[in-house]
Amino acid sequence: MPLDLFNVGDPIADTKAPMDVPIAERWSSRRFRARLVNPANRRKMTVIVVGTGLAGGSAAATLGEAGYKVKSFWYQDSPRRAHSVAAQGGINAAKNYRNDGDSVHRLFYDTVKGGDFRSRENNVHRLAEVSTNIIDQCVAQGVPFAREYGGLLDNRSFGGAQVSRTFYARGQTGQQLLYGAYQALERQIAAGNVEQHARTEMLDLIVVDGRARGIVARDLVTGEISTHFADAVVLATGGYGNVFYLSTNAKGSNTTAIWRAHKRGAYFANPCYTQIHPTCIPVSGDYQSKLTLMSESLRNDGRVWVPKERGDTRDPREIPEDERDYYLERIYPSFGNLVPRDIASRQAKNVCDEGRGVGPNGLGVYLDFADAIQRLGLSAVEAKYGNLFDMYNRITGENAYETPMRIYPAVHYTMGGLWVDYDLQSTIPGMFVIGEANFSDHGANRLGASALMQGLADGYFVLPNTINDYLADGPFEKVDESHPAAAEALQGVQDQVQKLLSINGTRTPASFHRELGKLMWDLCGMERSEESLRKALDRIPEIRQEFWSNVKVSGDWSSFNPTLEHAGRVADFIELAELMCIDALHRAESCGGHFRAESQTPEGEALRDDENFAYVAAWEWTPESAPPVLHREALEYEYVHLAQRSYK
Amino acid sequence: MTLTLRVWRQKDPSVKGGIVTYELADISPDMSFLEMLDVLNEQLILGGDDPVAFDHDCREGICGMCGVMINGQAHGPEQTTTCQLHMRSFKDGDTITIEPWRASAFPVIKDLAVDRRAFDRIIQAGGYISAPTGTAPEAHSVPVPKKDADAAFDAATCIGCGACVAACPNASSMLFTAAKVTHLGLMPQGQPERDDRVVNMVAQQDREGFGGCTNIGECSASCPKGISMETISRLNHDLLGALRAGVRPKS
C-alpha cells in the first residue's frame, strides 16, 4: 500500500477486559475490579450525554438514577424523535423461551460469525450475556411486546440465526423500546437529575489536560454557540450512513459529533464497514430524499425471487412458478431467505447486474407473500406485518397483498465508529462512546435485531458500570469558558459558522451532499475495488475544495437556520468519506459488508484474508496536509474458530 | 405537476407572520410532500431567499417530528404523517395552503416549525413506570393477557406529532395524554402508579394551556396512527376513579 495515503503507527490494544479468567467470567470480573463511586460523591460529578436514542436515552436515565448530574443534548425538539424510533423488526436476547437450543454462547457465536470474524470476542460475549437483562428491564417499563395467548412473550426468527430469539412489538419495536428509555429519561428530568438541552447540536469536544471535559454546542433555535462542562462526556450520536445521502437514516442523522471528536484525538475504527440492508423500497426518482426500510422480519414469510429470464417485464403474477428463480433458497438451502444481510444484499445486486432485476429501472427484486397468505391466511399476515404493508402502499401506491413487493438494498447501518476499549472509553480519556457511534460489537456485518440489543446493552448495563472506574478519580479540577482550550474550541466553531455563511457561492449544501452520496454509493458501496476507490479518492478532495469555495448558505447564524446546520454536517461527511475510502482501499480483503471485487471465492462469496487483516483498523486524525495514521488492534479468536462463513 | 403554494412565513415568534405565495413547476406525483418542499427550498436558497423552515427527521412516518396544516387539515388529506403524504394525492394546478400547527401551547419557532415541548412535560408529570435500571424481575414472571398487550400497543403507537392538538377546535391534548394513560394503565406493571399518573398528567396539560376536551373527535380522525377515542373514555374513567379515591395532583 503506498504511503502517500496513510502512515502506520503503533499497534493499539484493549487493556480493560480481564484476560486471566474464561470469557464467560470476564464481564463480572471487570465489574468487580472496576472502582466504584459512592453515592454522595456521584452528586458532585457531571456527565454530558449527547444523543437520546436507545443508547443515549438509556444511559442518561440510568446515570441520573445512579445519582450523577447529567446534561443531556439532542438536536430534535424531543428525545423521543431519535432515529432508534424507526427500528422495526425486533431485539435479540438469549432467553431460550422457545426451547430451541439457544443460549448465551450461541448468541455470542452467531454474532461473531455473523460479523465475519471482525469483532472482539470479549465485547460480543458481554452483549449476549446482558441481552436477557434488557428484556426484563423493558418489560418492567411497560414496553408492550408481542405476546402469546397465554400471556407470555412471543418470538420470531431473524437473519443469520436458526433459533427464534427475537422479541418484537409488531413492526415498531424500536419505537416502543425508545419510548421506554425516553419515559425513564423524562422521569429523571422531572426529578432534577438530568438537565435538558433540546434542539442543541454538539459541534466540538473540549479536551483539557488530555481529558474530555466538555462540548461546544449550538442552540439551533437562537443560534447561540456556547460551552458546556462535565467530568466525562458520553457520545451516543448514532451512525454515519447519511454519508451516502440516500439511506434509511433520518434526514438529520449525521457524523458531526463523532467526526469532530475524531479530530480532537479519538481514533475512528473500521470506517469502511457499512451495512447495506437487503429489503428497502427501491429508489424512484432523482428528487428522492431518503430510502425506507421494509423490516427484515418480512423475510420470515416472504420469498425473494426474480424471473429466470433477463428482461422479463411480465406482471409478476403472470410469471409461472418454473420461470421464477428463488435465488436465496437455491444458493443457500439451509438458511434460505434468512441469510445475513450482507449476503442477501450482494445476491440482489448480482441478479440485477445480470439484467434480471425488476421494476422501472431494473434495480429491484420481488419479495412475495403469496405463499404465506395461502398458508397462514390474509388476516394472519396482516396482523404480523400490516403496518409494513401499509407503509409500502403509501410510498409506492402498490398493494403488496395482491402483487409482490419490490425491494432493493440500501445503506442502513454503520458498523464502524469511534474506537473504544472494553469499558467503552475512546482514546481520549473521559470520552465514552456508545451505541452505533462506536465500533465495538458487530464486526464487519451486523445481524438483524442486534442494533437495539447493543444500544440498550451499552446504555443500561455496560456504560453505567464502567464509567465509575474513570470517575473514581474525579471530580476533576473545575474548568470554565475562560480556559484556553475551551476558548479555542468555541472560537473554532464560531469561525466555521461565519465561514459557511460568508462563501455565498452557487450550490446548496444539499447539492453537495447528493453528489458526495452518489459517488460513495457508486465507488464505495456494495462492491468496492482498488480502481473504484482510487477514483473516489481523486474526486473527494475536489468536492471538498468546491464546497468550501462555492457553497451557498442563506440566512444568518443567530436564528433557526436548518440550511446552516446541514452545511456543517455535509462538510464533515466529505472529510469522513475520504477516510472511509482509504480504509476500504487498505483492507484488500472482503469481509461482511465490505466486499472487495478482488477478493472473492469461486462462488462469489466474500473471501477474508485472516493472515493479513484479522485486525481492527483504528485511524488517527492528522492535520489536513498529513495522511491519517493506522493503528492496528489484533483480533484473536479463542472461542469461535475462524472459518469461512457458510449459510448453505 | 404545477402547483401554487400558499405558505405561512414568520421569521420568529416576536414578529407577525403571513401567507406568501409561490409557484412551483415540475413536481412528480411520486414525490413526498416534504420532497416537494425541498424543491421549493432549493429554489429559494439559490435565489438568495430564506428557505421555509419546517420540522422533519425520519421521513418514514414514525419519529413524529413533521407536521403541518395542509389546506386546513392536520397532515393533509390522507390519514398519515406529512412525510408519508405523496403528491399523487393532489392534482396538477392545485393551490395548497400550508400553515403551522395552531395552538397557544405550541408557539411558532419559525415558519412551519413549532415548539412541542409541552408534550414532554406532560410525560414528565407521570407518563412512565418507575423501574430504575437493574430492578426488573424476570420478564416472564408477570404474564400479560394478549388482548391487553395488543390494546396497550395500539395506544402506545402515538408518535407525539401534535396533529390531535392542531385538529381540535379547543386545541386540546387529550388524545395524546389518553394514549399514554391507556398504554401504561393496561399493563400490569403500570398499576401501582395508575391513579397518580392520570391525575398529574391531566393537571399538567391544563397548566400548559391546552384546551378542554369536548369529545368532538377531530383528534382521532386526524391521527396518523389512528389512536382511538376509546383511550379518552379510559382516561376519564381512570381520572374519575382516582379523584373519587382522593388522589390529587402534585403541586
From TrEMBL, chain A:
Residues 47-452 form the FAD-dependent oxidoreductase 2 FAD-binding domain. Pfam families: FAD_binding_2 (PF00890), Succ_DH_flav_C (PF02910). Residues 513-647 form the Fumarate reductase/succinate dehydrogenase flavoprotein-like C-terminal domain. Keywords: Cell membrane, Electron transport, FAD, Flavoprotein, Membrane, Oxidoreductase, Transport. It is a peripheral membrane protein. Its cofactor is FAD. This is succinate dehydrogenase. Belongs to the FAD-dependent oxidoreductase 2 family. FRD/SDH subfamily. Its EC number is 1.3.5.1. It comes from the Bacteria. One of its GO terms (biological process) is anaerobic respiration. GO terms for cellular component: plasma membrane. It is found in: Cell membrane. The keyword Nucleotide-binding does not apply. It catalyses: a quinone + succinate = fumarate + a quinol. GO terms for molecular function: electron transfer activity; flavin adenine dinucleotide binding; steroid dehydrogenase activity, acting on the CH-CH group of donors; succinate dehydrogenase (quinone) activity. It is an enzyme of class 1 (oxidoreductase). The active site is at R341. The keyword Chaperone does not apply.
From TrEMBL, chain B:
GO terms for biological process: aerobic respiration; respiratory electron transport chain. Gene3D superfamilies: 3.10.20.30, Alpha-helical ferredoxin (1.10.1060.10). Residues 1-102 form the 2Fe-2S ferredoxin-type domain. InterPro entries: 2Fe-2S_ferredoxin-like_sf (IPR036010), 2Fe-2S_ferredoxin-type (IPR001041), 2Fe2S_fd_BS (IPR006058), 4Fe4S_Fe-S-bd (IPR017896), 4Fe4S_Fe_S_CS (IPR017900), Beta-grasp_dom_sf (IPR012675), Helical_ferredxn (IPR009051), SDH/FRD_Iron-Sulfur (IPR050573). Residues 149-179 form the 4Fe-4S ferredoxin-type domain. Its cofactor is [2Fe-2S] cluster; [3Fe-4S] cluster. Keywords: Iron, Iron-sulfur, Metal-binding. Belongs to the succinate dehydrogenase/fumarate reductase iron-sulfur protein family. This is Succinate dehydrogenase subunit B. It comes from Geodermatophilus ruber. The lineage of its organism: Bacteria, Bacillati, Actinomycetota, Actinomycetes, Geodermatophilales.
